[in-house]
Every structure is written in C-alpha cells, then in structure tokens.
C-alpha cells in the first residue's frame, strides 16, 4: 500500500514524515540537510511507494509570503518535474513549528533536547501530515 509523505522545508534542514501503509498515523521519518533533500527522496521512493507528497507552504500570519515561500514554491516545481507520477500538494504550515515545540514540552522533553532544531523540523512535518490525515477523515 502506498504512503503519504510530508515535507517541512527549511533553509538548512528539512523535516520528513510519512504515514503508515493504511494512511492512519503520521510518523517522523527523518531530518535531512536541505541540500540532500532530492537525493534522499529518490532513495526513499526507490524502496517505498508514495501516492502523495505534502509540501508545507510557509506564510506570514496575514497570508502573505515570507522569506522562504519562494524557495518552497521552487521546490514544488522541482518535485512535480522529478516525480511526475506522484502528486504534490501545498499545505499551509503556519504554526506547525510552534505546535512541535509545544508538543516537545508536553511530552516532558528536557530543555536541552527541545533545542534540537532537527527534531523540531521532523515533528513539524509529522504535525503537518497528521493534520492532513485528520482533515481527510472528517
């Protein structure tokens, strides 16, 4: 069965999350160097079937573009070109980083562990994906 993959793009690091094969639960996959993202995706797609890519679309609170939005939109085009058999969907990612940080606090992670930005990126991708899944079940 095919999975759904979510991407929380960042200038330095990018968080990845995937569903289970039944598309019920989102789990963190990895945090990768953004420069290695396409290579990592090719490796993953070679061993797993993915039916949809969700790409976090960063925006300011008022809905306008922020400094990273153009890079994400460029990646959106690259993904469509490189993986034409997998649909790519832009998903509003406002608040996912704050939600990820709060979930780390709520789960009892120590302050030092909460400073791990790679973990925040992976959790952000997981929140993005789980939110999408929850919306599909409504």
Give the overall shape, derived from the CA principal axes: globular
**Helix and strand pattern:** EEEHEHEHHH
Number of strands: 5
Mean pLDDT across the residues is 84
Q: So how many helices?
A: 5
The order of strands across the largest sheet is 3-2-1-4-5
Indicate how many domains the architecture comprises: 1
**In CATH's first tier, which class applies?**
Alpha Beta
State the low-pLDDT regions, or none: none
Beta-strand proportion: 15-25%
Helix content: 40-55%
- Stated plainly, the CATH topology is called Nucleotidyltransferase, domain 5
Major sheet characteristics: 5 strands, mixed
Question: What does this molecule look like?
Answer:
This protein has 138 residues and is an alpha/beta fold. The protein has one domain (3-137): YqgF/RNase H-like domain (Nucleotidyltransferase, domain 5, 2-Layer Sandwich), CATH 3.30.420.140. The chain contains five helices and five strands; from the N terminus they run E-E-E-H-E-H-E-H-H-H. The model has no long low-confidence stretch (mean pLDDT 84). Strand 2 and strand 3 (26-33) form a beta hairpin. A five-stranded mixed sheet has the order 3-2-1-4-5, sandwiched between helices. The two termini are 22 Å apart.
């Amino acid at each position: 069965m095919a999975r759904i993959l979510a991407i929380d793009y960042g200038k330095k690091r990018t968080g990845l999350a995937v569903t289970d094969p039944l598309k019920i639960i989102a789990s963190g996959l990895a945090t990768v160097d953004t420069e290695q993202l396409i290579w990592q995706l090719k490796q993953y797609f070679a061993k797993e079937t993915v039916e949809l890519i969700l790409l976090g679309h960063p925006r300011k609170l008022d809905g306008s573009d922020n400094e990273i939005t153009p890079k994400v939109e460029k990646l959106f085009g690259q993904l469509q070109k490189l993986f034409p058999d997998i649909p790519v969907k832009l998903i509003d990612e406002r608040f996912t980083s704050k939600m990820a940080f709060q979930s780390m606090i709520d789960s009892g992670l120590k302050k030092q562990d909460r400073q791990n930005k790679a973990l925040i990126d992976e959790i952000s991708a997981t929140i993005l994906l789980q939110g999408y899944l929850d919306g599909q079940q409504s």
